[in-house]
Write a structure and sequence with these properties.
Blueprint: E1 8-13, H1 19-26, E2 34-39, E3 42-47, E4 66-75, H2 79-90, E5 97-102, H3 119-134, E6 152-160, E7 163-170, H4 195-206, E8 215-219, H5 225-232, E9 236-240, H6 247-250, E10 255-258, E11 275-278, H7 284-295, E12 304-310, H8 320-328, E13 334-338, E14 346-352
Parallel strand pairs: 5-6, 8-9, 8-11, 9-10, 11-12
Antiparallel strand pairs: 1-3, 1-4, 2-3, 4-7, 6-7, 12-14, 13-14
Helix pairs in contact: 2-3, 4-5
The structure holds S-adenosylmethionine.
S-adenosylmethionine binds next to helix 5.
Length: 357
Amino acid sequence: MTSTQNSSFVYVATQHGAEASLKAMLCEPIGPYRLSYSTKGFVTLKSDLSTPVWSKALPDHPLIRSRGHALKRFEGEQSSELVSKVLSEYRDLDWDVLHVWQRDVAQPGWHGFEPGRSPLADMVAEQFRKELQLQDDPRSQSVNSIASLESKLLEVILIEPHRWWIAAKPVQNVADSWPGGVYAVPSPENMISRAYLKIAEAIPWSGLPIRPGDRIVEIGSAPGGACQRLLDLGAKVTGVDPAEMEESIMANPNFTHWRSKSLQVKRRMFSSFKYLVCDANVAPNYTLDTVESIVTYPTSKFRGLILTMKLSSWEIASEIQDHIERVRSWGFDRVEARQLAHNRREYCLVAEKLASM
Ligand SMILES: C[S@@+](CC[C@H](N)C(=O)[O-])C[C@H]1O[C@@H](n2cnc3c(N)ncnc32)[C@H](O)[C@@H]1O
């Protein structure tokens, strides 16, 4: 599979379970592709167009965690042999950065599994680093580093320990720059809930300029994982939730708890907040109704939103564009959606009002 053939292949990596929805949205008759090799969390798609290896024409969808031009599959029992084969074939390709990552082995949060670094990927990455060093190739320093925008990325994707795919892409956005599209979240020992990981990923992905001292309200804040991260960043946080917050959050002087459902809080009480986070376990339209009634209230002055949108079924992913349009209609300049690596069957919708507007 090379770009010199009359066809080309791309891969998309996604969460286990999302493959069928993605295929439906990217393949004919809706999209331009036809299905090729597919396994849990990793799908390759064929196109009749021959695409140059650094072409920016790659699939884009909120459920795609990582994507690239799929070049070739390698199989073998010994990783050291595979490393040599990959390098002898791709050393002369003009890539800048090498990423080595492993396909998800489960759903995020399943028995403690989290996407991102794995012992196997770390071991293989180290083998590539050493081999490149032996060859005096300065790109040894690039292995699994965060790639800069516009750089040329070669990816070694460990589908199984003995089956690797090689892919390539130009880095077009912040998620492309992370190995496997996963932001390496440093999680604290005393992490209160997985919502910590979600918001810790949402902030760098969204680029929302959250600063110490910013006033943030979270709807659906209990037990407090997201508040924990926001407080760590120095924000002044108010949590709205009828359920109990974790003790250490309650004890933090920068935290206030409004122990009720959001509907019971007077809308003018939200006038001092800069950002709204919502992580209530309700259907997307209920989340949007709730947030709309707060954000569009005349005294509200929100500059940014981070909403977790629950997907009761994967089919609801086809409504993401409608959700984006609805939030845009509230006066936000930039509205984007992505299923974060640490999201489960849900996605993250962010909105920002730009300062100059
Ligand atoms: C997934 S949990 C939130 C996790 C939390 N963000 C964290 O960081 O640990 C969902 C929460 O939404 C709350 N919830 C659901 N509907 C709500 C509403 N209308 N107003 C406020 N909280 C709500 C529930 O009580 C529940 O605690």
